[in-house]
Amino acid sequence: MGYAWIAAKLEDTYNGNTNYTVSSMLIVSECSVTDHNRAGRFASLMDLYERNYIGLRRLAPQLPQQPLTLCSQVPGGLDLYLQLIERHRYTTDIVLTYRFAYVEGWRAEPNLGIRIYHDARQAEVMSAQLRHWAAFESTQCDALHQRWRVNRFLWKWLNYCLYQGHCFPPSSFSGSLDLNPAA
After folding, report:
1. Fewer Cβ within 10 Å of end Cβ, the chain: N or C?
2. Domain boundaries, the chain
3. pLDDT at 64
4. What is the reported pTM?
C-alpha cells in the first residue's frame, strides 16, 4: 500500500465515508513512524537519511561557509564537536564527535563522518570510528543492513544530543577550535 492509497482513503473519510477511518490511521502510522525501524530495506535507509538530515538541521540550523570546528557545551553533558570538513553547492562533509582525554592525548568517540545532501535533504554516515564497532559489523549482515545500523546509531545519537540541549547556533561561527591542542 502506497502513500497515494492512504491519501485517497483519508480523503474519503473527510467526505463523510467513515469506513476507512481506522484502517487509514493504522496505515499512516505504520508508514510514517516505523519505516526507519525495518533493517535491511532500502526505503528504511532512505527514511533514516531524511531523519538524520532533520536532526542535523535542528542541531546546526546553519552551517559555516568555511571549514572550522565548533563546540557545543551543555551543563552535565559531554562537549559535542562539529567539524566542517568541506562544503560544496549540493553537499557538505562534517565530522560529529565527543572528545575524551587519555594518557596519550585526546580520542574522538564516536567519530562519525557525515555527508549532508542539501538538494535531497538527506544526511548519510560515510565513515564511522567506533570503539565498539564490532557491535555494528556482522558477517551475517549485508552492506545495506550495516549502513542502516550505523545511520540508525546517528539518528539515536542526534536525538540524544538534542534532548540534552546541544546546538550550534550561527553566533558560534566566529572562532574555530583546535582539535589537537598541545598536550
Report:
1. C
2. 34-170
3. 85
4. 0.71
